[in-house]
Design goal:
About 60% of the residues lie in helices and about 0% in strands. It has about 230 residues and is an all-alpha fold.
């Protein structure tokens, strides 16, 4: 690792964490818990919908079904009704039931803290496994989705050659090198990158003028010269 890259990395970490503390969505309920089941359910709910939509139903859902066993015994129609504001409630209900059933049967109702075991669960890939490990298991993993990939590409000019970059081991390795070793900072950094991608470093019409990392961003430098 070159000195220049090390300095850029430290500045990126510092700027993202400071921005998150000021502007990030720090009070989302699934970011204020370390309970692995709560984190896992949130990750499932956030697929194909928005943060604001999930926020409206999440606390009521977790109050009713605080454990895999509770969700497994849930009335299916009642569960679908709770999930209806998110859309595709039949699919979401089925997936959550399958998830709860596997956790109960194979792990005694406890969400595992092993990446390999997490990925054995239905619907759990690298990203969701990383989220549980980060939030609940004390492992500073990167939350590498298309949003973090976009920020990495723009700031560092690192681009995957794969059609599905989130499956690229090299991108995962690079993203992991960006995450602070301190667990609390790792959480703030990861959530900060996700919020930054959603609010500032958007896929279309990025708000570069208010970006906290524009001074070290390769994309911004190119845009200024264009």
């Amino acid at each position: 690792m070159s000195r220049e890259f090390s300095e850029k990395l430290r500045e990126f970490q510092r700027a993202v964490v400071e921005w998150y503390r000021r502007c990030g969505d720090r009070f989302l309920p699934w970011r204020r818990t370390s309970d692995p089941w709560s984190v896992l359910v949130a990750a499932f709910l956030l697929r194909k919908t928005t943060v604001s939509q999930v926020d409206k139903i999440y606390e009521e859902l977790m109050k009713k079904y605080p454990t895999p066993k509770a969700l497994l015994s849930a009335d299916e129609e009642e569960l679908k009704e709770l999930l209806r504001p998110l859309g595709i409630e039949n699919q979401r209900s089925r997936h959550l039931k399958q998830l709860a059933e596997r956790i109960e049967r194979e792990f005694g109702g406890k969400v595992p803290c092993s990446k390999e075991e997490l990925k054995e669960l239905p619907g759990v890939g690298d990203y969701i496994a990383a989220e549980v490990l980060l939030a609940s298991c004390g492992v500073p993993e990167p939350l590498l989705d298309r949003n973090m990939i976009r920020v990495i590409e723009r700031v560092f000019g690192v681009k995957s050659e794969k059609k599905r970059p989130h499956t690229d081991p090299e991108i995962w390795s690079f993203a992991k090198s960006l995450v602070p070793e301190n667990l609390e900072e790792a959480k703030q950094f990861n959530y900060g990158v996700l919020d930054l991608a959603r609010k500032v470093c958007r896929a279309r019409k990025p708000r570069c003028s208010v970006c906290p990392v524009k001074s070290i961003c390769a994309y911004y430098e190119r845009a200024k010269k264009a």
